[in-house]
């Protein structure tokens, strides 16, 4: 006869098999930990963005907006003869813009004139002006007095460095070279140290917008500084939250790097092989952007974002703030940090750079106006 059929065991009414219960418990635990991590990262990001910060507003009386700059002057560099270059019209995924269809440009202003005006520089034929999207800039004067202008460019949101020769008689830029490299995936700013040599910051490790966002959200500290020359390209400093502005000291011995979301300026010693070693870190209470150096004093001038959330989540009724810091004796044990200018967005929104020349102060922004002040 056939063996009796075994009946499957029934769980008690209202019960759950132990294995399934354990699986759900583990799943809930993992979900809970993931949510806790996301919550912690969100709060950490708000802190890094200084999302609740407001500022006092010291007044600089002798200031006026620069005519012709309506959609940002993200970086400024001034030659020893008083010619100032402006990088204007930056567009970036997630960044507000007042001129979405207008290509970027390089403007120039002669600060030795009684009433300086900003003029757009003509760029030589063959360079793709339609996709010109300039970011950080830097000048280099060669031994024969040739002036080179280095421009971080994001054509179609890619990453290149463009090298131009400045032709002063024609008020024009002759395009010499486009540089692309796998070690330059997310270039932000640049400081030139030779006719084709520079240090550059990568504000992210990745170039893909979603991976960049993830990298920022998870606070991975994968941002770095790269040295580029025609013969050698190498990472010379790493571990930054978001390396941004970079500048060389007047004596060429040190490199200064702004780490925006860490609210820090790093002082790095430059060696003969162009490697860098960290000397000190100056902690501040604001999001530091681009750096400029007063060549006469060595003071570091910083364009800052007191509240990063207002910068990245644009609301015309609650616009981004502006702040300019002056740092004296940065190499000393106790540098002096002074707020020279601040504004609630009524005049200037999202200050990204401040440069001085002979008692004159220029303040640029990521996507708004630019200011000319007499100190």
TrEMBL record:
<feature type="binding site">
    <location>
        <position position="290"/>
    </location>
    <ligand>
        <name>Ca(2+)</name>
    </ligand>
</feature>
<feature type="glycosylation site" description="N-linked (GlcNAc...) asparagine">
    <location>
        <position position="344"/>
    </location>
</feature>
<dbReference type="GO" id="GO:0102007">
    <property type="term" value="F:acyl-L-homoserine-lactone lactonohydrolase activity"/>
</dbReference>
<dbReference type="GO" id="GO:0005886">
    <property type="term" value="C:plasma membrane"/>
</dbReference>
<keyword id="KW-0812">Transmembrane</keyword>
<feature type="disulfide bond" description="In form B">
    <location>
        <begin position="63"/>
        <end position="373"/>
    </location>
</feature>
<dbReference type="InterPro" id="IPR008364">
    <property type="entry name" value="Paraoxonase2"/>
</dbReference>
<feature type="binding site">
    <location>
        <position position="189"/>
    </location>
    <ligand>
        <name>Ca(2+)</name>
    </ligand>
</feature>
<keyword id="KW-0378">Hydrolase</keyword>
<dbReference type="GO" id="GO:0005576">
    <property type="term" value="C:extracellular region"/>
</dbReference>
<dbReference type="InterPro" id="IPR051288">
    <property type="entry name" value="Serum_paraoxonase/arylesterase"/>
</dbReference>
<dbReference type="InterPro" id="IPR002640">
    <property type="entry name" value="Arylesterase"/>
</dbReference>
<feature type="binding site">
    <location>
        <position position="244"/>
    </location>
    <ligand>
        <name>Ca(2+)</name>
    </ligand>
</feature>
<keyword id="KW-1015">Disulfide bond</keyword>
<dbReference type="InterPro" id="IPR011042">
    <property type="entry name" value="6-blade_b-propeller_TolB-like"/>
</dbReference>
<protein>
    <recommendedName>
        <fullName>Paraoxonase</fullName>
        <ecNumber>3.1.1.2</ecNumber>
    </recommendedName>
</protein>
<dbReference type="GO" id="GO:0009636">
    <property type="term" value="P:response to toxic substance"/>
</dbReference>
<dbReference type="GO" id="GO:0004064">
    <property type="term" value="F:arylesterase activity"/>
</dbReference>
<feature type="active site" description="Proton acceptor">
    <location>
        <position position="135"/>
    </location>
</feature>
<feature type="binding site">
    <location>
        <position position="289"/>
    </location>
    <ligand>
        <name>Ca(2+)</name>
    </ligand>
</feature>
<dbReference type="GO" id="GO:0042803">
    <property type="term" value="F:protein homodimerization activity"/>
</dbReference>
<feature type="binding site">
    <location>
        <position position="188"/>
    </location>
    <ligand>
        <name>Ca(2+)</name>
    </ligand>
</feature>
<feature type="transmembrane region" description="Helical">
    <location>
        <begin position="21"/>
        <end position="43"/>
    </location>
</feature>
<dbReference type="Pfam" id="PF01731">
    <property type="entry name" value="Arylesterase"/>
</dbReference>
<keyword id="KW-0479">Metal-binding</keyword>
<keyword id="KW-0325">Glycoprotein</keyword>
<keyword id="KW-0472">Membrane</keyword>
<dbReference type="GO" id="GO:0046872">
    <property type="term" value="F:metal ion binding"/>
</dbReference>
<feature type="binding site">
    <location>
        <position position="137"/>
    </location>
    <ligand>
        <name>Ca(2+)</name>
    </ligand>
</feature>
<keyword id="KW-0106">Calcium</keyword>
<dbReference type="GO" id="GO:1901335">
    <property type="term" value="P:lactone catabolic process"/>
</dbReference>
<feature type="glycosylation site" description="N-linked (GlcNAc...) asparagine">
    <location>
        <position position="290"/>
    </location>
</feature>
<comment type="similarity">
    <text>Belongs to the paraoxonase family.</text>
</comment>
<comment type="subunit">
    <text>Homotrimer.</text>
</comment>
<keyword id="KW-1133">Transmembrane helix</keyword>
<feature type="binding site">
    <location>
        <position position="75"/>
    </location>
    <ligand>
        <name>Ca(2+)</name>
    </ligand>
</feature>
<keyword id="KW-0732">Signal</keyword>
């Amino acid at each position: 006869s056939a063996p009796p059929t075994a009946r499957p065991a029934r769980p008690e009414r209202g019960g759950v098999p132990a294995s399934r219960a354990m699986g759900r418990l583990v799943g809930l635990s993992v979900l809970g930990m993931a949510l806790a991590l996301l919550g912690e990262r969100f709060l950490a990001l708000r802190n890094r963005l200084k999302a609740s910060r407001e500022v006092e507003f010291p007044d600089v009386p002798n200031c006026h907006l620069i005519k012709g700059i309506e959609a940002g002057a993200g970086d400024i560099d001034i030659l020893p003869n008083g010619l100032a270059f402006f990088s204007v019209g930056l567009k970036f995924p997630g960044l507000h813009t007042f001129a979405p269809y207008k290509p970027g440009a390089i403007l120039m202003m002669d600060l030795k004139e009684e009433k300086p005006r900003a003029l757009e520089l003509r760029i030589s034929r063959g360079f793709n002006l339609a996709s010109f999207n300039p970011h950080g800039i830097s000048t280099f004067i060669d031994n024969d007095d040739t002036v080179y202008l280095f421009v971080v460019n994001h054509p179609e949101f890619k990453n290149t460095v463009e090298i131009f020769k400045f032709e002063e008689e024609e008020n024009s830029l002759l395009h010499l070279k486009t540089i692309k490299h796998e070690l330059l995936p997310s270039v932000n700013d640049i400081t030139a140290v030779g006719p084709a040599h520079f240090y550059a910051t990568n504000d992210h490790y990745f170039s893909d917008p979603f991976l960049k966002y993830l990298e920022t959200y998870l606070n991975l500290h994968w941002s770095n500084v790269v040295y580029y020359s025609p013969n050698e390209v190498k990472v010379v400093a790493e571990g930054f939250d978001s390396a941004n502005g970079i500048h060389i000291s007047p004596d060429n011995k040190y490199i200064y790097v702004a780490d925006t979301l860490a609210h820090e300026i790093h002082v790095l010693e430059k060696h003969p092989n162009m490697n860098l070693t960290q000397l000190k870190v100056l902690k501040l209470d604001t999001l530091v952007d681009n750096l400029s150096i007063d060549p006469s004093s060595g003071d570091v001038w910083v364009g800052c974002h007191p509240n990063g959330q207002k910068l990245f989540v644009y609301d015309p009724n609650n616009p981004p703030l502006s702040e300019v810091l002056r740092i004296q004796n940065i190499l000393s044990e106790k540098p002096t940090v002074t707020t020279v200018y601040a504004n609630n967005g009524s005049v200037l929104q999202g200050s990204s750079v401040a440069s001085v020349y002979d008692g004159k102060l220029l303040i640029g922004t990521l996507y708004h106006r630019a200011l000319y002040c007499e100190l």
